Please model this.
Amino acid sequence: MKIVGIVCSPRKGGNTEILVGEALDAARSEGVETELIRVADMNIAPCDGCGSCAKTGVCRIEDDMQSVYRSFEEADGIIFGTPSYFSNVSAQAKAVIDRTYVSLLHGKLRGKVAAALVATRRIGGGQILSILYSYFTVQGMMIAGGGIGYGRKKGDVREGPGGSPVFTAIEEAQAVGRRVVKTIQKVS
Ligand SMILES: Cc1cc2nc3c(=O)[nH]c(=O)nc-3n(C[C@H](O)[C@H](O)[C@H](O)COP(=O)(O)O)c2cc1C
Model:
């Protein structure tokens, strides 16, 4: 079993990365292989809508998204992390989402387990989870839930609350990692 976590914040070592890292650590402690992808290290162009992927089955843009496609295809579960930017996903997250149009057309993500993690100072968390759940649904993925971590400065989520009043941000992220593992075990 393999779980891939993708960190769609441009800020290296930031709150989204901490949340996704905690979720993957929790998954690893259940004996699962994990991979963390940081889009801040990558060059991923937006989809240009050329439509050629409908015929060819591949995206013709030769950039770092090609390695993300490979990681996603190998994964049984994907944890999608984004900061709240104006109560929406980051531009980096939207580029990744749109570039998986080819994956949608060819059913490459269908049946995989998905979860979302959002880092936010104050607002947008619930709205962004809904946006990501819609994306997962369109892709035919199985949604294993999601979590929110509150914090503004780098590292704030280590002390911040989670979306649920009874969880810290870190506890919520860890619960997401374990839930993805359990969901994969149930459906496979
Ligand atoms: C461009 C930009 C837009 C932001 N928009 C919001 C917002 O709408 N609501 C909010 O609560 N926080 C907002 N924030 C704060 C971030 O969501 C917050 O600092 C988050 O922890 C950043 O995660 P990161 O460290 O992974 O980048 C914004 C930050 C930036 C840089």
Notes: Residues 2-187 form a domain with the Rossmann fold fold (CATH 3.40.50.360). Strands lie at 2-7, 33-38, 77-83, 113-120, 142-150. The radius of gyration is 15 Å.
